[in-house]
């Protein structure tokens, strides 16, 4: 399966409206659906945030120039919320999955599908 198929499958769940997969270092885009496209500085901050959450706690979580309220940041997952939409970032061994959910979607539903994909990728050594 191509990387693009993974982001497309996240979109197909209807719990995520935009998705992307980046290298774990945050230096390359592997796949993107519905123009999520984080700026290079934003994905670099997220990549660093998995190692040092205080970076995001002090500067905030930004996507496409918009600031998200940081809900959770640890070595595996980073969650953010902006009004009624939100963002889920999950780090696997080799990748960072990013899923955006729109207004009307329960955050738990979106989180579950992104985290499940991460679990699968980890199980196959990605």
Automatic annotation (TrEMBL):
The lineage of its organism: Eukaryota, Fungi, Dikarya, Ascomycota, Saccharomycotina. It comes from Saccharomycopsis crataegensis. PANTHER family: PROFILIN. Binds to actin and affects the structure of the cytoskeleton. At high concentrations, profilin prevents the polymerization of actin, whereas it enhances it at low concentrations. GO terms for biological process: mitotic actomyosin contractile ring assembly. Belongs to the profilin family. Occurs in many kinds of cells as a complex with monomeric actin in a 1:1 ratio. Keywords: Actin-binding, Cytoplasm, Cytoskeleton. GO terms for cellular component: cell cortex; cytoskeleton. This is Profilin. It is found in: Cytoplasm, Cytoskeleton. The keyword Cytoplasm applies. The keyword Cytoplasm applies. One of its GO terms (molecular function) is actin monomer binding. Its main location: cytoplasm.
């Amino acid at each position: 399966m191509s990387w693009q198929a993974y982001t497309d499958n996240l979109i197909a769940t209807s719990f995520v409206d935009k998705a992307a997969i980046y290298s774990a270092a945050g230096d390359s885009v592997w796949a993107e659906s519905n123009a999520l496209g984080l700026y290079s500085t934003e994905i670099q901050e997220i990549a660093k945030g998995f190692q040092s959450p205080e970076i995001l706690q002090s500067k905030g979580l930004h996507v496409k120039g918009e600031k998200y309220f940081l809900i959770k940041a640890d070595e595996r997952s980073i969650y953010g919320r902006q009004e009624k939409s939100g963002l889920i970032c999950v780090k696997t061994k080799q990748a960072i999955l990013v899923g955006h959910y729109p207004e009307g979607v329960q955050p738990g539903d979106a989180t579950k599908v992104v985290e499940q994909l991460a679990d699968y990728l980890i199980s196959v050594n990605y």
